[in-house]
Amino acid sequence: MVRLAVMFHLAVEEPYNFAQSVQDHGWIRLAPSTWLEDRQSFQYVSRLAGGKVVLTEVTVAESDTALSLAVTLDGTEPLRAAERGQIERDVRWMLRLDEDLSPFYDQAATDPHLWQTVRTGRGRLLRSPALFEDVVKTICTTNTTWRQTKAMVQRLVQRLGSPYPHNRDLRAFPTPEQIAAAPLDVLQTEVRLGYRSTYVHELAKRVVQGELDLEALKQSALPSSELKKQLKAIKGVGDYAANTLLMLLGRYDKLAIDSEARAFVSQKYYGGRPATDQDILSIYEKWGAYQYLAHWFDSLS
DNA sequence: TTCCAGGGGTAGA
DNA sequence: TCTACCCATGGA
After folding, report:
1. CB closer than 7 A to strand C: which residues?
2. How far apart (Å, rounded) are the C-alpha atoms in residues A244 and A252?
3. Which of A89, A194, A207, A279 could bond to A275 as cystine, CB 3.0-4.6 Å?
4. What pLDDT digit, counting tens, does each position of A36-76 carry?
5. Residue A190 exposed, middle or buried by CB count within 10 Å (0-12, 13-18, 19+)
6. Are A98 and A92 in contact (CB under 8 A)?
7. Distance, Å, A96 CA → B13 C1'
8. Is A250 left (phi over 0), alpha (psi -120 to 50) or beta?
9. pTM (2 decimals)?
10. Within chain A, which residues score under 50 in pLDDT?
11. Within 7 Å: CB of A237 and strand B?
12. Angle between helices A131-139 and A196-208 (to 10 degrees)
């Protein structure tokens, strides 16, 4: 089998700590994303619109001057310019290379403790190329352990995703079409999504039927509260999941309060006594458009 | 056994 | 808007 590789560079604005930013978020441990420690690189199995499966690897480019990333695409067929362009846009989206965090940096610089962590260039939390993938992954984080989340996503990818020709153990995240075409029973008994099976299956069918245009939400100029209503209209997406998805869309004005956030705030601000959701909200309220990131960095530092 | 994990849907008030 | 109850799964 012929192996074809393409490499290109992406310019990056500093401060940006590639290795930390990619690994900070748990998403790096959800298939088909991987962190290759020995190569200090981020690997992702991409499925292009036409069905080609390509292995994408991103690492810091060797350079004495400006920071840039080296992106390598491995596949069996030559890539058209449009396909290469798609992957480049996907990588920029996944790593949030085009997000302007300077207003947050300005605000964070007024908090010496938080600034210690923020200034190191972390905080561009990893996300998936398609919002569909992130909605499914987020549904898989609810009311379960992180261990089970990883296992559910891994089984979903292995059972329904398209294989990478050079290594069939590597598969792309299944498309809405692939999930919709699978019998519900497969999601229940093989992927073992539990009661989430119907949510994920329904979501895939709605996307395939054109009833729900998730990709359009990425470009939406709607206020976060409006966007949140649309996200909560998805079965399986409640308050926590909707706010997590807003963060994945680059909106940081709402906190995703889960058991981890409750435990952290309780420990740090209430001496181990339980904190109500209102307590948590009031702590980060002053961060306005950047409440999620403020809490995120607070929990890191 | 029972509880609960990076919750959410639904019915009933 | 708030509360009680249910929901698959698997580890503790």
Report:
1. A 143-145, 147-148, 151, 188-189, 192, 194-195
2. 9
3. A279
4. 999 999 999 999 999 999 999 999 998 778 899 999 999 98
5. middle
6. yes
7. 46
8. left
9. 0.97
10. none
11. yes
12. 170
